[in-house]
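Late entry, written up from scratch paper. The run itself happened at the end of the previous shift, but nothing got recorded in the book at the time, so transcribing now.
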Amino acid sequence: MTLIIKNSLSSEKEVFKPINEGEVGLYTCGPTVYNHLHIGNWRAYVFTDLLKRYLKYSGYDVLHVMNITDVEDKIILAVIEQHRSLKELTEFYTEEFFKDRDALNIIPANFYTKATDYINEMVSLIKKLLEKGYAYRTSDGSVYFDINKDKEYGKLSHFKLSDLKEDAKGRLKKDEYEKENAQDFALWKAWVEEDGSVFWETDLGKGRPGWHIECSAMSMNKLGESFDIHTGGVDNIFPHHENEIAQSECATGKMFAKYFMHNEHLLVDGKKMSKSLGNFYTLEDLINKGIDPIAFRLWLYTSNYSTRTNFTFEAVNGAQTALERLRKAYLDLGNDIGTVNTGYKTRLIEYMDDNLNTARALSLVWEILKNKELSPAEKKATLLDFDKIFGFGLDSL
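Output as recorded:
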């Protein structure tokens, strides 16, 4: 059987073929640690965990790297507003991220790379882009990537640069912009008074890195100049991942990531999450409403990661009931563990090979429990085998 995944670079489903046989280099855009993550953020990390679990289940040796963005515009603003040091703020929210990760039974990455630990690598990468003519300095000492120098710019988000409006105004200050306003982006931001104590003295001058260069430097440091899979939410496609590709491939002359996999948005009651709408939820909000984080995980599997999904408390409460039923049924199987049923295992692999079709794979769980031809011990072994992918934590019950 062959794993088929949706590659955002081609917008097509493709057969997964790693660069090195039996090995997978996996990079995930991690959290910007200035606040608690919302449940939409967690969809991205549950998806990546599912992908990693299935790759490992399929026999691959997976090297997983996730960044921790601990210096960025939003973080500096939070530092100023909360009167806390950069380290104090980011370390607190990093630990909160890890607590939520563990509550969702997400397997830790092999490396969590903090941006502030890779300033030298970022500076080296920026200097290389300057030397090759892909970057330029501005009068204030900042360094920008010239998107017009990259003939392939737009290949991930699938637009032509000539069709877009360039918006030079304000580009020195913003890391985020709309697709129709493609613009040169900051690689290095010269220090300004508003940055306060957040700066580094480097060969590029006094300042700090732009957001996009951070991921390129960290991923290539741990996974090499070319690696297999880059994951993240669809909101990362443009500009973040587009800019990562541009600066990385222009610096090295090599393919950056072979596959980009993106999970779709999570809506809440049919709308985009917003604090002003009162539909902005963290994992703690769910827990306070009596919802087990694993029930949220189970609910996410009822739709494909690449499909836009609508969160409602009615739906997740249904998942809570299903989880409780599953746990009780599993415990009622007794203590003996038999052999994994090959027929169900074959079907599981068939569904998961189809771009991680969790809805169909999950249906097998209930089919197994209802099957009167299977012994309790065989059911238990098969469910435990499946749970290596699902991550419901049945082995810890």
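Confidence is low (pLDDT under 50) at residues 167-173, 177-181.
(Scratch paper discarded after transcription.)
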